[in-house]
């Protein structure tokens, strides 16, 4: 890569989460200010690879999707000239956009990119304690105000980058929920896990964070409802059941509900017993330890029969009064 002085270069601040926006001093550039769709796309591709050179051949392939015109190289170089004039007027060689060996690069020290900050915060949080991680995760989520590259709906490379970022946002929401739970902030744990579940309805880790959040908040009924919705979604779309950790949380919710509701106590104890019997042989040791012991109402040997009678009696009584 060529070595250029950055002494007189004008740094830029760029937003690509949501609609593209560039701040250069007091000047604000939008997607329409960069010289047309192709120059703008060159800029966005280089932003996605901030600090890493992208070859001219790679840019041509991405811009034209394998259907490049005969004069693609000359056309690419003309687009870059247009982009430079709009992005860094008067600083063709010392601005953020540089010529690299066989391609182009955006000088990382001159570009403050929201996506780069998001990724850096996520990485720091992954290597922090829950108490240290939570504010970092909230700061990252404050940057995620919309889909990545909202101005680029057609290019395949933009769609792939957008999907990857959306998955990262969901992961950060789950991490925030788990960190909040660890810090004793149950309502915040519920808030972030609800967002994660809405984004990825088949993400079992998100459901686990939500059910655990409801449990920690004492919102047992909502936790049971969330578990049931998760169970039905996994069965319908993936043909599987919730994993051991989520089933153990479900068992704890049943026990807590039974202990707090006198009218339904015996019925819930019966369900708890059957849940324990159904899944205890599949649980890992750590998860098995989290499943409550069987109630004394359902003795060994006759437990299934006793639980069945309790549930049947309850249902018959409910139907008779309906």
UniProtKB/TrEMBL annotation:
Q: Which SMART domains match?
A: BTAD, Trans_reg_C
Q: Which residues cross the membrane?
A: none
Tell me the ranges covered by the OmpR/PhoB-type domain, including all copies.
Answer: 1-108
Q: Which Pfam family is one of this chain's hits?
A: Trans_reg_C
Q: Which UniProt keywords apply?
A: DNA-binding, Transcription, Transcription regulation
Lineage, top-rank taxon, reads Bacteria
Q: Which residues form the DNA-binding region? A: 1-108
Query: Which family does the record assign?
Result: Belongs to the AfsR/DnrI/RedD regulatory family.
Listed name of the protein:
OmpR/PhoB-type domain-containing protein
Tell me the organism: Arthrobacter mangrovi
């Amino acid at each position: 890569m060529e070595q250029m002085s950055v002494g007189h270069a004008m740094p830029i601040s760029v937003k690509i989460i949501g609609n593209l926006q560039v701040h250069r001093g007091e000047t604000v550039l939008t997607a329409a200010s960069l010289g047309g769709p192709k120059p703008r796309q060159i800029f966005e591709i280089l932003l996605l690879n901030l600090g890493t050179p992208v070859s001219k051949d790679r840019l041509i392939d991405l811009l034209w999707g394998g259907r490049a015109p005969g004069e693609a190289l000359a056309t690419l170089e003309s687009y870059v000239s247009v982009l430079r004039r709009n992005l860094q007027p008067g600083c063709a060689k010392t601005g953020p956009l540089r010529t690299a060996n066989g391609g182009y690069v955006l000088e990382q020290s001159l570009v403050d990119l929201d996506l780069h900050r998001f990724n850096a915060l996520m990485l720091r949080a992954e290597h922090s304690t829950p108490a240290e991680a939570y504010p970092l995760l909230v700061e990252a989520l404050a940057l995620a105000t919309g889909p990545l590259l909202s101005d680029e709906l057609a290019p395949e490379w933009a769609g792939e980058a957008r999907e990857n970022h959306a998955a990262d946002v969901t992961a950060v929401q789950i991490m925030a929920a788990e960190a909040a739970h660890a810090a004793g902030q149950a309502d915040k744990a519920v808030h972030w896990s609800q967002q994660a579940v809405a984004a990825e309805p088949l993400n079992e880790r998100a459901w686990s964070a939500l059910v655990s959040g409801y449990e920690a908040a004492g919102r047992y009924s909502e936790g049971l409802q969330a578990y049931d919705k998760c169970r039905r979604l996994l069965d319908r779309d993936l043909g599987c059941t919730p994993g051991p950790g989520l089933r153990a949380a479900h068992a704890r919710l049943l026990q807590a509900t039974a202990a707090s509701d006198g009218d339904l106590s015996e019925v819930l104890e019966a369900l708890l017993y059957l849940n324990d019997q159904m899944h205890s042989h599949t649980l890992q040791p750590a998860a098995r330890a989290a499943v409550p012991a069987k109630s004394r109402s359902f003795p060994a040997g006759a437990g299934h029969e006793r639980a069945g009678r309790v549930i049947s009696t309850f249902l018959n009584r409910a139907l008779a009064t309906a």
